[in-house]
From TrEMBL:
Belongs to the alkylbase DNA glycosidase AlkA family. InterPro entries: Alkylbase_DNA_Glycosylase/TA, DNA_glycosylase, HhH-GPD_domain. This is DNA-3-methyladenine glycosylase 1. Residues 109-265 form the HhH-GPD domain.
């Protein structure tokens, strides 16, 4: 005769049993409990619209076809002050650029140099490689001694920076492929670990080499002066103030920043064209 086992009822607050029930020769297969997330749909009624049917648009580089037009349309709608400036100037262009490694090496060479001097030194630098810029690679750069780089006009300090960049590539910490895929914050963190590459250099690299659409170089003097002039501020805006004033440009802050440079250039050109007597302060004219 089989023994029947009575299982006492569980209270709702009690946790489910974790130990096996005392001896029984009958094995019970556990039943799968299917949790219904949504109630079954009525085939005669239309399905309710999903709130996630529209995916966010993936931003493309500014050099992609039609991207500048989309940026200008957004900036005109979001910022009336910037809209007037956009209408008065030619639109920006972001042409294709060099490989990330070559672009970073070039940015190191150009640091703190006048444009003409930097161009001369960079041409001599490229002449050290077989095939010119196509021959510049981490291995070929590391094969050059600091003395060879100095003979081309590269300072000893910058020669060290160039070798550190090449070592980061050789070790696998950086690569052209990873740089192209990184988000802005990760890229900023990775590149500023390289000697001689600071936040400003990374911002310029992201804007003009990678053509990232939403970079705001809060430390750039030209962009800060442009924001100050456009908003008629008494003092140069600090980084946090820049973030707040330019938030409306997102996700095209790179383009908004580009117009700040053009604004200051136009003001400088207008001041240069002004007669000398008009440029003097009123106190000097009396």
């Amino acid at each position: 005769m089989r023994k029947s086992i009575k299982i006492p009822p569980q209270s709702q607050s009690a946790p489910p049993p974790t130990a096996a029930v005392a001896p029984s020769k009958i094995q019970f297969r556990p039943r799968k409990i299917r949790k219904l997330i949504n109630p079954p749909l009525d085939p005669l009624k239309p399905s309710p619209p999903s709130p996630l049917t529209i995916a966010p648009r993936i931003l493309k580089p500014l050099s992609s076809d039609g991207e500048i037009e989309l940026a200008l349309c957004h900036l005109r709608r979001s910022d009336p002050l910037l809209s007037a400036l956009i209408d008065s100037l030619q639109p920006p262009t972001f042409a294709s650029s060099a490989r990330p490694f070559l672009a970073l090496a070039r940015s190191i060479i150009y640091q703190q140099l006048a444009t003409k001097a930097a161009q001369t030194i960079y041409a001599r630098f490229l002449a050290l490689f077989a095939g010119g810029d196509d021959g510049v690679s981490p291995d070929s750069l590391l094969a050059l001694s600091p003395e060879q780089l100095r003979q081309a006009g590269v300072s000893g300090r910058k020669a060290g920076y160039l070798h550190d960049l090449a070592e980061n590539y050789r070790s696998g910490a950086l690569s052209d492929e990873s740089i192209l895929e990184m988000e802005e914050e990760a890229l900023l963190s990775a590149l500023t670990r390289v000697k001689g590459i600071g936040v400003w250099s990374v911002h310029m690299f992201m804007m003009f080499s990678l053509h990232r659409p939403d970079v705001l170089p809060v430390g750039d003097l030209g962009v800060r002066k442009g924001v100050q002039a456009m908003h008629k501020l008494k003092a140069l805006p600090k980084p946090l103030q820049m973030e707040g004033l330019c938030e409306k440009w997102r996700p095209y802050r790179s383009v908004g920043s580009w117009y700040m440079w053009r604004l200051m250039e136009s003001k400088a050109a207008a001041a240069k064209a002004m007669p000398a007597s008009a440029r003097r302060p009123a106190s000097a004219q009396s």
